[in-house]
Amino acid sequence: MSGRLTRTTQAEIDELVEEWVPEPLAAPLSQREQADLAAVPIIVGPTGPKPKLSTGKTVINLASYNFTGLAGNEIVKERSVETLRKYGLGSCGPPGFYGTQDVHIQLEQDLADFLGTESAIIYSQAFSTISSVIPAFCKRGDIIVADRGVNFAIQKGLQISRSTIRWYDHNDMKSLEQVLESTEKERRKKKGPLTRRFIVTEGIFDHDGAMADLPKLVELKLKYKYRLILDESVSFGSVGRTGRGLTELYNVPASQVDMLVGSLANGLTACGGFCAGSRVVVDHQRINGTSFVFSAAMPAMLSVAASEGINILRNTPSILDTLQDNVHAVRAILERVDCITIPSHQASPMIHLHVRLPSPTHLLPIAPSSPSLSSSGKPSNPLSVHPRDPEHFDLDLEEKLLQDIVEEALAQGVMITRAKRLRGQELVEVKPSIRLAVTAALSRKDCEKAASVIKAAFVKVVGKRR
Known about the structure:
Elements: H1 10-19, H2 31-38, E1 43-44, E2 52-53, E3 60-61, H3 74-87, H4 95-99, H5 102-115, E4 119-123, H6 126-137, E5 143-147, H7 152-161, E6 164-168, H8 173-190, E7 197-202, H9 214-224, E8 227-232, H10 246-249, E9 259-263, H11 264-267, E10 273-277, H12 279-288, H13 290-294, H14 300-315, H15 318-334, E11 340-341, E12 350-355, H16 395-411, E13 414-415, E14 417-418, E15 434-437, H17 444-463
Parallel strand pairs: 3-13, 5-6, 5-7, 7-8, 8-9
Antiparallel strand pairs: 1-2, 4-10, 9-10, 11-12, 12-15, 14-15
EC number: 2.3.1.50
Pfam families: Aminotran_1_2
Pathway: Sphingolipid metabolism; Lipid metabolism; sphingolipid metabolism
C-alpha cells in the first residue's frame, strides 16, 4: 500500500491550503431576515408603558412583559438603588459556592411564603430554570407525559433528561387521561418496573396563551400517581387575585403541584426564575440543578426588586383588577375583527393574534399528511410529538403579513411584536402570531386606542390580499 502513496511537495501543500475555503458556520441571512432585524425598535431610556424610541417617537407599549406595571415603579427603583450602593452590582459566583447573599435567601423565603409552599429556590436566568428543573429529577428510564404545545425551554429540558416521553394533545385533558392509561397498560403488558412518572405542562402556554385546567391536572396526577411539574412563567404575577398564578385563580393549594416553576423576569420585572415546592424538592436542586450550580447568582439589587414586587402585589390587589379590565378592553375590540382569531384564554394578559386569511387556498401543511392522519376520531400517537390532525398554515406568508401589521401599528404609535420562534429547532412548528402583552400600567382608554390601531392595521394589511 505504501508504494501507491503520492508524495506531495511543500509547495503543493501550501497551494492547497491557500485554495481551501471553509464551509460557512451558518447560511447567510435572507432578505426577509435582514429586514426583520432592521425593523426591531430601539428604546432610548427606561422601558415602560410609553417608552421613547431612537426615532424620537413615544409609543404605547404592548410588547413588553410588564403585566403588573412594576417596571419603573418608584418604590422598586428606590430600593434597588439602595441595594446597589450597599451590595455592588454582580455576585461574582454561583450560589452553591460563594455567590449566595442574604437578599437571595430572603427572596426565596418571600416566594415560598407568597405561594404557600415549604420552600423555594431562585435561578439567575429564566429560560434555564425549567430546562434545569426537569433533568434534575427526570432521568433515563423515567416517564414524562408532556403537552404537545410546551415551550422551547421545556423541550430542551425534556431532551436533556433522556427520559421516555409520551405526548398528549395540546391542553386536552381527555387526551392526557388516555395517554396516562395507555402508558400504564404498556408497562403492565411488558411487566416493566415501576418508575418515576411526571406530567409536564404550562400554566398559560407561551405559544398561544391557552390556560391549563389545573384542578383536572391535579385530579389526574393523584389518580394515576404522577408528579406534576407546572411552568407558570407567564401566569405567575399575571393571574389570580394577587398574581399568585393558577393555584390562586383555581383555589388549588400550591402543595398539590410538586414543582411549581415561574419567572421573576416576567412576573416581577426582575430577572431569573424560581422553583417552589417541598423542602426535599428544593434542596435536591441546590446540588443537582445545573443552572443553579454553575451560573452566577443574580445581582442583589434584582433580588430586592423581586421581593419588593411581591410586597406590592400582596398589598395592592387592585393592580390585578386593572390588568384584567385592560385585557377585557383589548379583547372586546379585537374579537370582533373578521381577519383575527384569538386562541388565548379570556383571562390571559398575553394575547396571541392569528391572521385569518380570506381564502384557504393559501394554506399549506406544516408536515406531510397521509390518509392515516385524516380526521378519523382516533387519538394521536403518544410516541410522536406531532398530533394526528396537525394545523395547516403557510409559514412564510403569515409571518410576512404579521410583520407588515407590526410595522403598520408602530407607524401609528403602538409597539407590538410577532411571537419569535427558533424555526427548525422547535419540535413542532408553531402557527405564526402577534403576541400582545397587556399591562396594568396603561389606562383603559390607552388600551382601547392601541387595540383600535391594531385592528386597523390588520384590516389594512389583510385587505390588500383580497
